[in-house]
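Quick review question:
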């Protein structure tokens, strides 16, 4: 798990080593900000003007340091996140995400109560998740390089979680996708939709059919059929249509594929035991309950549950 950052000291977290040109420049900046804070501490209009100027000229580092010195942790965290998103690679992005987590860490401003406390906690947890994802993405890139994954060197760092899962499935790395899904506890319904679309888009129709038969789909089988139709895998779609319980839904898909005879046959087909099972069991359960309670007339009224 990603270690929880502690707040102090924030100012030089993303800077280079002491004694470097960057560190000397940062010290000078801090000194100037100290003087600025002293000058505008009782002048809200001047403070607002400085913040607006930094945003307009995109001087994010200066603004981040300003918020740090003021103890404005939420604002400093937001600016640090902005800086992180501007960095393309893992080495540059990680320090700024770490700094954002330090700003958001509730332990740094435990006196805050009410909505600000909840907002800080949410932002801290979300940033820690991003740090975790960043590390996972970096490991996946290294693994792809050493193992020679198909499709050339991938670029995972910076992608959202769902996009990372999709890229793994597109490359046929099902084990890695399943592991990442479990690590971040992606809900079944969300993951199944991502996997269905990625398998179809990659042309891996055999794997898609296998996935459809793995276990009962938590999102039904319409998404499977729609994905097959979208990529013109008509034969696969025809194989999946009978998995729909509703005859009218089957007929709709058969008609859409121009298979009118199959559509008519689906509508004529008698209901299956699965379609009748729910109502029958409910009726039977009610009958048994009434008999157990010894209600008059229960036996005769419930002798044929299928008639209700």
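Suggested answer, residue by residue:
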């Amino acid at each position: 798990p990603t270690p929880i950052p502690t707040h102090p000291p924030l100012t030089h977290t993303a800077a280079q080593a002491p004694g470097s040109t960057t560190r000397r420049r940062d010290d000078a900046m801090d000194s100037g900000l100290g003087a600025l804070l002293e000058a505008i501490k009782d002048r809200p209009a001047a403070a607002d003007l400085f913040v607006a100027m930094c945003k307009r000229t995109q001087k994010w580092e200066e603004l981040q340091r300003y918020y740090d010195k003021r103890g404005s942790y939420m604002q400093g965290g937001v600016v640090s996140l902005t800086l992180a998103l501007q960095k393309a690679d893992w080495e540059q992005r990680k320090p700024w995400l770490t700094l954002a987590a330090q700003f958001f860490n509730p332990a740094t401003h435990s006196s805050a109560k009410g909505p600000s406390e909840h907002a800080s906690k949410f932002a801290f947890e979300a940033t820690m998740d991003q740090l975790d994802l960043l590390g996972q993405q970096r490991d996946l890139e290294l693994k792809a390089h050493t193992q020679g994954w198909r499709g050339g060197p991938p670029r995972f760092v910076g992608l959202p979680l769902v996009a990372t899962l999709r890229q793994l499935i597109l490359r046929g790395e099902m084990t890695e996708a399943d592991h990442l899904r479990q690590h971040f506890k992606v809900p079944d319904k969300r993951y199944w939709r991502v996997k269905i679309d990625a398998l179809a888009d990659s042309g891996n129709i055999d794997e898609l059919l296998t996935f459809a038969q793995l276990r009962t789909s938590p999102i039904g089988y319409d998404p499977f059929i729609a994905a097959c139709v979208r990529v013109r895998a008509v034969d696969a779609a025809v194989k999946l249509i009978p998995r729909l319980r509703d005859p009218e839904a089957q007929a709709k898909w058969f008609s859409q594929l121009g298979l009118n005879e199959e559509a008519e046959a689906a509508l004529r087909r008698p209901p299956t035991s699965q379609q009748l099972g729910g109502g029958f069991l409910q009726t039977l359960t009610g009958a048994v309950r009434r008999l157990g309670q010894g209600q008059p007339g229960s036996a005769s009224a419930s002798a044929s549950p299928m008639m209700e």
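Why it works: The chain has a mean pLDDT of 79. Residues 168 and 177 are 6 Å apart (CA to CA).
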